[in-house]
TrEMBL record:
<keyword id="KW-0342">GTP-binding</keyword>
<keyword id="KW-0472">Membrane</keyword>
<feature type="binding site">
    <location>
        <begin position="16"/>
        <end position="21"/>
    </location>
    <ligand>
        <name>GTP</name>
    </ligand>
</feature>
<dbReference type="GO" id="GO:0043022">
    <property type="term" value="F:ribosome binding"/>
</dbReference>
<dbReference type="Pfam" id="PF06421">
    <property type="entry name" value="LepA_C"/>
</dbReference>
<dbReference type="InterPro" id="IPR035647">
    <property type="entry name" value="EFG_III/V"/>
</dbReference>
<keyword id="KW-0378">Hydrolase</keyword>
<feature type="domain" description="Tr-type G">
    <location>
        <begin position="4"/>
        <end position="186"/>
    </location>
</feature>
<dbReference type="GO" id="GO:0005886">
    <property type="term" value="C:plasma membrane"/>
</dbReference>
<comment type="similarity">
    <text>Belongs to the GTP-binding elongation factor family. LepA subfamily.</text>
</comment>
<dbReference type="GO" id="GO:0097216">
    <property type="term" value="F:guanosine tetraphosphate binding"/>
</dbReference>
<dbReference type="InterPro" id="IPR004161">
    <property type="entry name" value="EFTu-like_2"/>
</dbReference>
<dbReference type="InterPro" id="IPR000795">
    <property type="entry name" value="T_Tr_GTP-bd_dom"/>
</dbReference>
<dbReference type="InterPro" id="IPR013842">
    <property type="entry name" value="LepA_CTD"/>
</dbReference>
<dbReference type="GO" id="GO:0045727">
    <property type="term" value="P:positive regulation of translation"/>
</dbReference>
<dbReference type="GO" id="GO:0003924">
    <property type="term" value="F:GTPase activity"/>
</dbReference>
<dbReference type="GO" id="GO:0005525">
    <property type="term" value="F:GTP binding"/>
</dbReference>
Length: 597
């Protein structure tokens, strides 16, 4: 296809504004899928994605559209995930396109994620066409929302396309806007091959499939290609496009998007953002790559039943095959036994992985408190990245601790602004900006990520009755007065319960966790002190008093079946306990304690 007949675009939107519905319509209207084949939400093909209505993996579809000018255009649609945790996947999808449709719900208006996504699209030099969706709703206010787009984003919205993705109204208007308002890709068909590696995943039949965007030259079957990051050479077995079904083609040229298979063993051998070139006539310079995905939140995952460890290991390996942003390494905990330290892009990512492990792999897991990555400088000059609070060296050996900060954008109706500002201030937030968008306030705050990973989203939703929208981007590291808090049960530290906190919040957090554990750990025949400590200094303490009499006493001489039942029940209960020194701690205590702020 000649370059001027290609358009590569993505759809950016706040969650629920109708991105997937519009994508489905575009596919349907251009006839890529017949109505009968058309399943709802075609692009969201993972079960959890569909249930939660969020798009995780970037997908792509090639559409053919005969425009009003009589020409047939090839439109490549890249689906992008909408959630903050996947900002990195958004950026790599955007790097493969020249333009974006900015979908805004005409009854809701601009939201925090709309903004975050627009900034990323602008960073990628995209031409942006505003699309007002859901104009079929009685509450739709297209004129007001257009004004908002101009005021807040600074985009000309006078010729925004007004549509209803649900009823199919004016989908043609979107297609015409793509053709007439978005730029065609540039590239040199005769140049040395340069293609951007956008994504890769494991397919049971084809092995590793690589999603590419060709910039210059061609990719063909039989061609020897070289990965510029590591020099690995592979022979292409198949090139193709997504219609959305995979369909083999002869070759992919400049401006085109599609897939390549080349007997690559594992996705770990493919680096997203890498440049693929021709092995015989290699390019000198790689394409500007994008930032690698770095896990920002870590937690330990342990099987509830120690016998499931092997199964956990296998399951993590399988998950990793299709999720290169998920990291894991073996670790052991005195309290929880053998498990894995796992790294995630954010809290939602963590939740999704946990859910997949329990749902698809039928694993019962305990997750330790999520922790961010701290940068430590020891007094001897050594620098380490701390992923697990349990590994924190003795305080006297640490010169400085730096913690990651984020820049958060929060949009909230005026009525709840006060509560939201209070929450941000409690979490050591620094206000950067406070402006109004109609009757909604937009607050930009810098916050330590450590204050956000616990329960910030939940608190934000509750203080704003669900009306606040939130998005963030990483904003560097800064030194902070952070301490490790250890929890001691019966005078023994329980490593899985230790956590990092700012000194100002240490006592409150320590007290909360001790109180919680007192409720959750069953009384035993002796007194059990529960303490929170910083180094050797105890900052909070509770005591579980001893049981005064034997619980089973009431069974003696009683009905034998009743007694047996009680014993069986105890045995079952045992499985869910962890022996710790002399004390048995129920799993539920770990889970509850770890879930707290
Ligand atoms: P994520 O995939 O979660 O990011 O959401 P999305 O932006 O893809 O939204 P989706 O397409 O799933 O639509 C969200 C909801 O809005 C669904 O219940 C749709 O049926 C509904 N919806 C989408 N477009 C329209 C529209 O034009 N009019 C009306 N009334 N509802 C719509």
């Amino acid at each position: 296809t000649p370059l001027d007949r290609i358009r590569n675009f993505s759809i950016i939107a706040h969650i629920d504004h109708g991105k997937s519905t519009l994508a489905d319509r575009l596919i349907q209207v251009t006839g890529a899928v017949t109505a009968r084949e058309m399943k709802e939400q075609l692009l969201d093909n993972m079960e959890i994605e569909r249930e939660r209505g969020i798009t995780i993996k970037a997908q792509t579809v090639r559409l053919n559209y005969q425009a009003k000018d009589g020409q047939v255009y090839t439109l490549n649609l890249m689906d992008t995930p909408g959630h903050v945790d996947f900002a990195y996947e958004v950026s790599r999808s955007l790097a493969a396109c020249e333009g974006s449709l900015l979908v805004v719900d005409a009854s809701q208006g601009v939201e925090a994620q709309t903004l975050a996504n627009v900034y990323q699209a602008l960073d990628a030099n995209h031409e942006i066409v505003p699309v007002l969706n859901k104009v079929d709703l009685p509450a739709a206010e297209p004129e007001r929302v257009k004004q908002q787009i101009e005021d807040v984003i600074g985009l000309d919205a006078s010729d925004a396309v007004e549509i209803s993705a649900k009823t199919g109204l004016n989908i043609e208007g979107v297609l015409e806007a793509i053709v007439t308002r978005l730029p065609a890709p540039k590239g040199d068909p005769a140049g040395t091959t340069k293609a951007l590696l956008v994504d890769s995943w494991y397919d049971a039949y084809l092995g590793v499939v690589v999603l590419v965007r060709v910039k210059d030259g061609h990719l063909r079957k039989g061609q020897k290609i070289r990965m510029m990051s590591n020099g690995a050479v592979h022979t292409i077995e198949q090139v193709g496009v997504f219609t959305p079904k995979m369909a083999a083609v002869e070759s992919l040229g400049p401006g085109e998007m599609g897939y390549v298979t080349a007997a690559i063993k594992t996705v770990a051998d493919t680096n997203v953002g890498d440049t693929i070139t021709d092995d015989r006539r290699p390019a000198e310079e790689p394409l500007p790559g994008f930032k690698p995905s770095i896990p920002v939140v870590w937690c330990g995952l342990y099987p509830v039943d120690a016998d499931d460890f092997e199964k956990l290991r296998e399951s993590l390996g399988k998950l990793r095959l299709n999720d290169s942003s998920f990291h894991y390494e073996a670790e052991t905990s005195a309290a929880l036994g053998f498990g894995y330290r796992c790294g995630f892009l954010g809290l939602l990512h963590l939740e999704i992985v946990q859910e997949r492990l329990s749902r698809e792999f039928d694993l019962d897991l305990i997750a330790t408190a999520p922790s961010v990555v701290y940068k430590l400088t020891k007094t001897n000059g050594e620098k380490i990245d701390l992923h697990n609070p349990a590994d924190m060296p003795d305080g006297s050996l640490v010169e400085e601790i730096e913690e990651p900060w984020i820049k958060a954008t929060i949009m909230v109706p005026d009525d709840y602004l006060g509560a939201v500002l209070t929450l941000c201030n409690e979490r050591r937030g620094q206000q950067v900006e406070l402006t109004y968008v109609g009757s909604r306030a937009m607050a930009v705050y810098r916050l330590p990520l450590n204050e956000v990973v616990f329960d910030f989203y939940d608190r934000l939703k509750s203080v704003s009755r669900g009306y606040a929208s939130f998005d963030y981007a990483m904003d560097g590291y800064e030194p902070g007065d952070l301490v490790k808090i250890s929890i001691l049960v019966n005078n023994e530290p329980v490593d899985a319960l230790s956590f990092m906190a700012h000194r100002s919040a240490a006592e409150r957090r320590g007290r909360q966790i001790c109180e919680k554990l007192k409720e959750l750990i069953p009384r035993q025949l002796f007194r059990i002190p529960i303490q929170a400590a910083i180094g050797g200094r105890v900052i909070a303490r509770e005591t579980i008093s001893a049981l005064s009499k034997d619980v089973t006493a009431k069974c003696y001489g009683g009905d034998i079946t009743r007694k047996r039942k009680l014993l069986e029940k105890q045995k079952e209960g045992k499985k869910r306990m962890r022996q710790f020194g002399k004390v048995e701690i129920p799993q539920s205590a770990f889970i509850a304690a770890l879930k707290m702020d």
